Amino acid sequence: MIKVSGLTKRYGEHRALNQVSFHIKKGEVVGLLGPNGAGKSTLLNILTGYIFANEGQVLVDGMDMMQSLIAVKRKIGFLPEKPPLYKDMTVKEYLLFVAELNGIAKKDRHQAMEKAAHHTGITHVIKRRIKNLSKGYCQRVGLSQALIGDKEILLLDEPTVGLDPKQIMDMRQLIQELSTTRTIIISSHILSEISVLCDSILLLNKGHMIAHEKVENMIKNALNIHQLILRLGLAGCDQETIIANIKCMEGVLDTYLVGTYESNTWDYSISVNKGYDIRTQLVALCHEKNYPLLMLQPTVLTLEEMFMKLTEEGGA
Ligand SMILES: Nc1ncnc2c1ncn2[C@@H]1O[C@H](COP(=O)(O)OP(=O)(O)OP(=O)(O)O)[C@@H](O)[C@H]1O
């Protein structure tokens, strides 16, 4: 449904996107993740046709975005982080206006407005002024404007930001309902939200795409890495040598200094491939090198830690 190849966007010398390629199938719900400045908004803005890339190609349903911009735009609905609402209008006036902007014939606008309002459950407030609605309802109005014109693809930028817990649950349920018949990309910082709503995760970091994985694989990968926290007393320990000694053990993926959680101690995080239990070796190493071993605690990598691992320096 959406095929992106070699997309690069430069702002002056800075590359906000660097050779990004991915393929999203019809009906897929994709979570767009990445730390601040990763390029998420830039990517969404290119996919909505709001800005253009310097290099690369976007195909939507087989149509080249550059060559068939209007036809592509007709397929894509966009809910920006701050929906473009005219607060003095009633919901009905606003949605009719959006229908007009979408090029819908006058005789069909009313029906398009009603359909979108029905989808998002705001039919009972269409006569109210937008400025008098709660944030949750404003977000629903924003979603309705994205749906007007039976859009096949929805791009949702941080759709639950600023909502209270009840509104968040309602919004998620709404997105789940819409996802049964649409292709959706959701940009979010909330990993639990992405793992509930999405089929796959597209992870960006500093303009590079570093993963496009099914959510279940991402979780499985996280579970496949075991993590140990090793606490050593300071006496006679050279941190770099300790890290080097641990890193050369079989099965160890990474080791780094976490910090101090108890006076005169250092905690080290050790990631180990599933199937390896290096605890006995670690105890032997500490004994041999006289490292004061104070704690050795296994933990499981959460999706958040997996995300941190992939987006940290050199994580790709
Ligand atoms: N109009 C612009 N002019 C110059 N640089 C820009 C412009 N827009 C974005 N950038 C830069 O491009 C990079 C990617 O920005 P973008 O807003 O796409 O990231 P993001 O992943 O959406 O971040 P956030 O989560 O903070 O919204 C950042 O370094 C940003 O400073």
From TrEMBL:
Protein family according to the UniProt entry: Belongs to the ABC transporter superfamily.
Molecular function GO labels: ATP binding; ATP hydrolysis activity
ABC transporter domain: residues covered: 2-231
SUPFAM superfamilies (UniProt xref): P-loop containing nucleoside triphosphate hydrolases
Keyword ATP-binding recorded: yes
InterPro entries, sorted: AAA+_ATPase, ABC_transporter-like_ATP-bd, P-loop_NTPase
Keywords associated with the record: ATP-binding, Nucleotide-binding, Transport
Name of the protein this chain belongs to: ABC transporter ATP-binding protein
Keyword Transport: yes
